[in-house]
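Re: that chain you flagged

S.,

Sorry for the slow reply, it's been a week of failed gels. I finally had a moment to sit down with the sequence you sent. For the record, here it is as I used it:
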Amino acid sequence: MSDPSQSARHGSLVEDHQRVASGSWVERVFGSYAYLRLWIVQAVGSTGDWLGFLAIGAAATKFGGGTPETAVGFVFSVRIIPGLFLAPLAGVLVDRWNRKRVMIVCDLSRVGVLIFLPFADKVWHLVLASLALEVFTLLWIPAKDSVVPSMVPEEQLTTVNSLQMAATYGTVPIAAGIFIVLGRVADGIGDWPIVSGLSGDQIGLGFYVDSLTFLFSALMILTIAIPRRPREEQPHERPRLNLRATFDELREGWEFMFINPVVRAVCAALGAGLVGGGMLIPLGPIFAEEVLGVNAADGMSILQTGLGVGVAVGVAVLSASQRRIEQVRVFVIAVFGAGLSLLLAASMTQLWAAASLIGLMGMFAGAIYVLGFTLLQISVDEDLRGRIFAAVYTIVRLSLIIAMSVGPFVAALFNGLSDKFFDKKLDIFGWDVFIPGVRLTLWLAALIIIGASVLARVSVRDLLIDDAASPADDTSETSETSGT
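Prediction finished late last night. Pasting the structure tokens below so you have them in one place:
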């Protein structure tokens, strides 16, 4: 006899699928009209984020004096490091508070910070503003990710996460184009008295336009119907915010990451993947020059283009085939494929061969990102989502810091050891293989990603076995029904 609750859930999913399939193009693509509006909010807000990123970088360079590199690095490090400590607490608060209200307050707070930035004239002004913006972002992102599963059918989550990735990273060239246009506008109106009084140069206009994107976001979210959680409908039952309760909820979230096999696999894969793949950022120019024998800037540009195109193709293919794949199995395969692609790319000596393999790695990376967030949204209960997503962003930030700070030092260490013991050459079956430190480090990065795929495979082994057995179970059940 079948479980009535499972039958009811299956029936509900079938009804959702039929509704989406027969609905308008908005429901077929975005899952619901409410999510379409939220996606527009994210696309506009991401454009503002990247525009603000460019403006703050330009301002730090302007105020940095004789050491602009140090000023830029210091300002941007503030956007990364605090998240390691504040993100877990942000997750607890997001799980306690009304998430719609959190997003509106954070957007309006970012507007308040940004409208004062055109008048900043010292690096420490930018540091404080970057810190404040990061705090509000740390609250906004897990709040947004937590409400998405309640706004779209489960079978649409893969497509939705692909759209979110497009909104986040596809807006980079748009923001860059806007910043260039603002520079031309500033040149044209620079002589106006009111413009000089409001610091209306290219940097100032960038901050003003950025503030408008977050004002738009707040107004849009105010009008979006976001389902309330049962916990929010009974505020008197919520525990008071105190240190002990906060610590207990933090521990509950992190324990769940280690207990749940899917969440554990996703976190391990994302962390290791970013440690490995992230090393390509600081080491790419060195690899292009020392191993591929091309100009560092030109070579890195081609490698980055290959990575970006690969990510776009991977996301598009995944979105088109989402209903015909086993998400857990494909996720594990994508992690392994990303590691193998990087291993082969680091073994190349021709630029276009390496760029093609980096593009292949990008395809797998796009699948990892989309499927990883989809699996988290499906596997995590409503009241835990804020903490889990905040913890994931902590892992992401820590992994990027390790990759970009440790990678060059590891490459330098390996370079010295390779020079001392092998003269940077290794004879493999009669072939002289050039092994500078940068190539050895990228090989190590690839092995880290492959190791993460093995860990993910072990973590979800039971789920894969159940998936493999399910067709037989379905056939058996169908036969019983027919016989009856």
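What I noticed first: The two ends are 12 Å apart (CA to CA).

Talk soon,
D.
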